[in-house]
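SEQUENCE-TO-STRUCTURE ENTRY
===========================
What this section holds: a protein sequence and its matching fold, both as plain text.
Question of interest: how does this chain fold, as expressed in backbone structure tokens?
***
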Amino acid sequence: MSFVKQANANTAATILAGLKKRNMEGWFCETCEEAVQKALELMPEGSVLSWGGSMSIQECGLMDAVKSRSYTLIDRAAATTPEEKRELYAKAVLADYYLMSTNAITTDGELVNIDGLGNRVACLCYGPSNIIIVAGMNKVVHSVQAGIDRIRTKAAPPNTVRLNLDTPCAKKGICQDCFSPDCICSQIVVTRRNKIPGRIKVLLVNEDLGF
């Protein structure tokens, strides 16, 4: 194991302790394969699943895994009209499991997320019976403010490029604290505690995932 990987493992142990005191469950996985296997163990086949827009759950292989098994999937990409998309969003709120990443996680176990429309953070806050978060160690920060800074400088610019949005950060690569119609920084949510013990489950992966 490299020195960086070992340091990540040490940091993860601190984060897991922070999650526990905040009524969240956490696991540290050395590889994406381990993380996918753990996620599948947590979700009985036949469960209803939905997810937020996340490069992390795609990159680690979790999306391919759930699509090849006997789950009922609520996929917003299947919508062909705004009305259908709204209906799928409503169904996602009642899912058994909601899959997502977090934009940042502090060393003390706080989750920091910034969202455009708000559907992803809405499900994180309330609705689905279980939230499974897959996060690479590249998402780790020392404080909530550092998490917000990370999102605005490292996550939002490439994400707006990926989504082909017309925002200042897509053009300049730097956050301008904009009010653009395409702005993806509308909602800032900090999860400092989980009200329902065990509802939020975090899989930390000793790899870089997502933005």
